[in-house]
């Protein structure tokens, strides 16, 4: 079965796609991307993902050509996503969508690529039940809000390190001993019935799902705060949660070999998230 991609305004068979070797994405990892989840053909919080992508394209000089050449208007992207999902038979069920913008170079134009794939019910059930994680030093040493660079080598390396220790995710901490984020997720902890998540100036991604969790926590009457979370606090927290747009809200069931009971708040937050998804779906 042919898997289809969307490339620069056209549907293309994935196996036929070629990226010029002199594109900055190939030579230097100069690309930006967004990953999100689609529910029965509807991408959740697409506009927020596009706003973040456009914001970093405006800020970064590398993407001056891409700003001129690539149409990332909401209507254009919605059309592309609908065509891509239909071509891949993904208009029902859950799907992962990735939008990538390359920087191009002086010699080749930038590109916009979109890929999609199905998420199985088994995988969803596994995420909802909880994953294991390990703590690792954050190798990046960065401060301030971070863009979603296509150069994801540190993140992939951290996940592979976690797998060698029998875990599914790595949670980074800074040189100063504070949590930053997961290799592919934002991090929350529940401490004394308050949800805490590291602030953006700790060098974390301004995650779309992170923001949704902050919203639904307040709506549910759960106190939440963006503040520094010391690693030394972890033995005393009630729960550790990971969030990203594909996995939604994932409890950590095992951290550095220490089990965490699934707190009742986790199921409450997961259901609130899915209720929000359902409320945003077109009638």
CATH topology of the largest domain: D-amino Acid Aminotransferase, Chain A, domain 2
Radius of gyration from the alpha-carbon trace, in angstroms: 19 Å
Oligomeric form: single chain
Count, helices: 8
What is the name of the CATH class of the largest domain?
A: Alpha Beta
> Average pLDDT across residues?
95
Number of strands: 15
Query: Beta-sheet strand percentage?
Result: 25-35%
Helical fraction equals: 25-40%
Report on the architecture of this protein.
It is a single chain. This protein is an alpha+beta fold. It has 2 domains: 4-119, D-amino Acid Aminotransferase, Chain A, domain 1 (2-Layer Sandwich), CATH 3.30.470.10; 125-280, D-amino Acid Aminotransferase, Chain A, domain 2 (Alpha-Beta Barrel), CATH 3.20.10.10. 31% of the residues lie in helices and 29% in strands. It has helices at 24-28, 46-59, 64-69, 74-87, 121-129, 153-164, 208-219, 264-280, and strands spanning 4-7, 10-13, 31-39, 42-43, 94-102, 112-118, 131-137, 169-173, 179-182, 186-191, 194-197, 223-226, 239-244, 248-255, 258-259. The strands form 2 sheets. Strands 7, 8, 9, 10, 11, 12, 13, 14 and 15 form a 9-stranded mixed sheet that branches. A 6-stranded antiparallel sheet has the order 2-1-6-5-3-4. The protein is globular and about 55 Å long. The two termini are 31 Å apart. The model has no long low-confidence stretch (mean pLDDT 95).
């Amino acid at each position: 079965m042919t898997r289809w991609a969307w490339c620069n305004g056209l549907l293309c068979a994935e196996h036929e796609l070629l990226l010029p070797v002199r594109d900055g994405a190939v030579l230097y990892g100069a690309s930006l991307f967004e990953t999100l989840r689609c529910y029965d053909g509807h991408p959740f919080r697409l506009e927020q993902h596009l706003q973040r992508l456009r914001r970093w394209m405006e800020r970064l000089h590398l993407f001056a050509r891409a700003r001129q050449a690539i149409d990332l208007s909401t209507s254009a992207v919605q059309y592309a996503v609908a065509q891509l999902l239909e071509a891949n038979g993904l208009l029902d069920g859950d799907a992962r969508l990735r939008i990538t913008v390359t920087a191009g170079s002086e010699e080749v134009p930038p590109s916009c690529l979109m890929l999609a794939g199905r998420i199985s019910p088994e995988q969803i059930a596994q995420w909802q039940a909880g994953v294991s994680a390990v703590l690792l030093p954050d190798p990046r040493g960065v401060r301030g809000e971070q863009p979603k660079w296509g150069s994801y080598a540190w993140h992939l390396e951290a996940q592979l390190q976690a797998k060698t220790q029998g875990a599914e995710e790595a949670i980074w901490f800074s040189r100063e001993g504070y949590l930053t984020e997961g290799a592919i997720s934002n991090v929350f902890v529940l401490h004394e019935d308050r949800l805490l998540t590291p602030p953006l100036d700790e060098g974390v991604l301004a995650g779309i799902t992170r923001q949704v969790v902050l919203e639904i926590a307040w709506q549910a009457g759960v106190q939440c705060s963006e503040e520094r979370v010391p690693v030394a606090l972890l033995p005393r927290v009630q729960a550790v949660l990971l969030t990203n747009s594909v996995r939604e809200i994932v409890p950590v069931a095992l951290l550095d070999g220490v089990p965490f009971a699934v707190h009742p708040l986790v199921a409450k937050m997961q259901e609130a998230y899915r209720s929000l998804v359902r409320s945003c779906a077109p009638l």
